[in-house]
């Protein structure tokens, strides 16, 4: 065997694999930011009749600001720094929150980290996740509408079909979610390669006609625009941020492809294509100011506009799909971190763990997107509602990263100050400019974010109250075992597995079985399912047996799942057998279903308690959440006054 040939084939295979990952990343990671040229420049110069006039000074100042925003926030902050903060290979604001939580605060007697720093990190993560949902509702609506509106450029008589066509595409998009994205996903990458190539070609064609626009890459044009016309620049900042929406996806979807493919895709294709297209639109506006109504589509010759509309629509569907999939992933992480109740999760691919479908989240997003589509009815008007959620998420991520850089990377104070000023100045300007649009649509994503934060905080507090109430009325293990030994119980052959969170008290289902049925299995295994702050847990660290609990018939076990994993208890049982725990092939599982009753005295207000009760009673039950076998699972029902 020729060793040189082996090395060559190995290198060739590695390069092919890397290229495939880069192309795949183009289809999933960059769909949102990649479709921003459809509406960003149009929103800046055409919104409300054109608040920002299409003078050469303004055009150069705007495109210069866009370029430096892409360079500072996306390239430097996200690609350069944020991608370093991976949590076991996973990214996203909740993954970063879990990463920071592990490293800040002090450790209490129970081994948990507590303190103000941990609380601040948690609140930043919760607020950022809430705003992400606001972004997830607006992105499909504005992306699809901006593409469909191209038919009015091809033929103005078709403008009345824009909203019905947009609604039809949105309906098809959300209905298709239940079948998963595996089949469609294979085509995403090549389509986006074509899309970014078109962005570059369209831009170059216009730059050739007005090459002077290349001078706008100098920062002096952005500074001159801001200094000489601060009022106009402030208004423009509210729409310039549209050019960097989707930057958070670079970090959130890092776990699917790894840092290197994401970075390469951005640096070698996405970033250059976006810059060329924005420069091309600017060149077009300098030569033809009236093109501001639809500068993207008017860059193309008339014969190419209809095909461009079709390709743009495909690209926006991909962008919408990426955001929807992101919402599923964030919801799953939030559930496993105890920030949201358990929703039904369906795995749509036997090969890709990241391809999941959450029916409840899907249809809530659908209702929100359709309402926005029917209320605003155009991408221009939707642009007024966009931006506030995005810039808010930017600020939350920056705050969390600075905490990470200090506690994990041990950055010096001067480095933290420089990073805060470099990123925070841009993001604070964007946020304040979009805050002005609060009463012109900006309240929509903010309201969605506030509602999500409220739900997360209420859920977390309600669970804590429930835990404390159970501790008050339930015997500890010593008291329970004393009562068991005092009774003449029937011992049933076999092994019973009880799912229970609190290791200090016996499971409610076990208590009920003993109290009312006067029986207990000869072997009882109590499993405490926990979610780790790591995205995935290796099998050799998944289970641990409590060796201090000495009852001969009862075994206490802890099973850990990563926050990015779907908890599967039967698979964990297989690992327990390898660890020496005596469990038969087909054990019986016992769970409890509790009905909550409103009590008079409580630390939570009555109306918030009703929200918690609604969430608690409608969450997915352990049977489906832990993938338990229905024919061998027994659920006991009880009531608890809270």
From TrEMBL:
The chain crosses the membrane at residues 19-39, 59-79, 119-138, 158-176, 188-209, 221-244, 265-286, 306-330, 356-376, 382-404, 416-436, 442-459. Residues 22-472 form the K+ potassium transporter integral membrane domain. InterPro entries: K+_transporter, K_trans_C, K_trans_N, Kup. Pfam families: K_trans (PF02705), K_trans_C (PF22776). The keyword Membrane applies. GO terms for cellular component: plasma membrane. One of its GO terms (molecular function) is potassium ion transmembrane transporter activity. It catalyses: K(+)(in) + H(+)(in) = K(+)(out) + H(+)(out). It is a multi-pass membrane protein. Residues 493-638 form the K+ potassium transporter C-terminal domain. It is found in: Cell membrane; Membrane. Keywords: Cell membrane, Ion transport, Membrane, Potassium, Potassium transport, Symport, Transmembrane, Transmembrane helix, Transport. Belongs to the HAK/KUP transporter (TC 2.A.72) family. Transport of potassium into the cell. Likely operates as a K(+):H(+) symporter. This is Probable potassium transport system protein Kup. The lineage of its organism: Bacteria, Bacillati, Actinomycetota, Actinomycetes, Mycobacteriales. The gene is kup.
């Amino acid at each position: 065997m020729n060793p040189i040939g082996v090395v060559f084939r190995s290198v060739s295979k590695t390069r092919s694999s890397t290229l495939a990952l880069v192309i795949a990343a183009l289809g999933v990671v960059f769909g949102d930011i990649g479709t921003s040229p459809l509406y960003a420049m149009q929103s800046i110069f055409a919104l409300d009749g054109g608040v920002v006039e299409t003078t050469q000074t303004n055009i150069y100042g705007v495109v210069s600001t866009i370029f430096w925003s892409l360079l500072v926030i996306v390239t430097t902050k996200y690609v350069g720094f944020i991608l370093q903060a991976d949590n076991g290979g996973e990214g996203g604001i909740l993954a970063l929150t879990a990463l920071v939580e592990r490293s800040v605060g002090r450790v209490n007697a129970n081994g948990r980290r507590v303190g103000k720093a941990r609380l601040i990190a948690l609140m930043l993560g919760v607020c950022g996740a809430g705003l992400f949902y606001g972004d997830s509702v607006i992105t499909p609506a504005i992306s699809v509408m901006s593409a469909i509106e191209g038919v009015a450029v091809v033929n103005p008589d078709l403008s009345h079909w824009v909203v019905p066509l947009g609604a039809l595409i949105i309906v098809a998009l959300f209905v298709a979610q239940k079948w998963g994205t595996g089949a469609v996903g294979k085509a995403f990458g090549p389509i986006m390669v074509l899309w970014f190539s078109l962005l570059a070609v369209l831009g170059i064609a216009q730059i050739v006609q007005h090459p002077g626009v290349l001078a706008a890459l100098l920062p002096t044009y952005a500074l001159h625009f801001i200094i000489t016309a601060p009022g106009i620049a402030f208004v423009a900042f509210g729409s310039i941020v549209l050019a960097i929406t989707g930057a958070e996806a670079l970090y959130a979807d890092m776990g699917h492809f790894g840092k290197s493919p994401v970075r390469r895709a951005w640096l070698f294709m996405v970033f250059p294509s976006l810059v060329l297209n924005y420069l091309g639109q600017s060149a077009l506006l300098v030569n033809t100011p009236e093109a501001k109504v639809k500068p993207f589509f008017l860059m193309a010759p008339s014969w190419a506009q209809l095909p461009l509309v079709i390709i743009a629509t495909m690209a926006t569907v991909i962008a919408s799909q990426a955001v929807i999939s992101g919402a599923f992933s964030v919801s799953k992480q939030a559930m496993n971190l105890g920030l949201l109740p358990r929703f039904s999760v369906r795995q749509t691919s036997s090969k890709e763990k990241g391809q999941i479908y959450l029916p409840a989240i899907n249809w809530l997003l659908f209702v929100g997107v359709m309402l926005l589509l029917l209320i605003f009815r155009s991408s221009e008007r939707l642009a007024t509602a966009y931006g506030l959620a995005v810039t808010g998420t930017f600020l939350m991520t920056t705050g969390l990263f600075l905490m990470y850089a200090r506690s994990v990377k041990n950055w010096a104070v001067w480095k933290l100050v420089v990073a805060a000023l470099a990123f925070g100045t841009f993001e604070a300007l964007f946020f304040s400019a979009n805050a002005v649009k609060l009463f012109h649509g900006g309240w929509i994503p903010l309201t969605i974010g506030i509602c999500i934060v409220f739900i997360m905080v209420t859920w977390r507090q309600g669970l804590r109250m429930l835990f404390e109430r159970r501790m008050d009325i339930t015997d500890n293990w010593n008291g329970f075992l004393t009562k068991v030994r005092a009774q003449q119980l029937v011992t049933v052959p076999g092994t019973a597995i009880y799912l229970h969170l609190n290791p200090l008290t016996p499971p409610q289902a076990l208590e009920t079985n003993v109290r009312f049925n006067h029986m207990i299995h000869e072997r009882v295994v109590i499993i405490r399912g926990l979610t780790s702050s790591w995205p995935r847990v290796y099998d050799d660290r998944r289970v641990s047996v409590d060796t201090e609990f000495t009852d001969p018939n009862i075994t206490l076990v802890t099973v850990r799942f990563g926050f990015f994993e779907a908890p599967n208890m039967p698979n964990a049982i297989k690992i327990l057998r390898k660890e020496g725990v005596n469990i038969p092939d087909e054990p019986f599982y016992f769970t409890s279903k509790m009905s909550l009753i409103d009590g008079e005295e409580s630390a939570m207000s009555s109306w918030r308690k009703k929200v918690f009760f609604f969430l608690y009673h409608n969450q997915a039950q352990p049977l489906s959440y832990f993938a338990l076998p229905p024919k061998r699972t027994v659920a006991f029902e009880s009531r608890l006054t809270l």
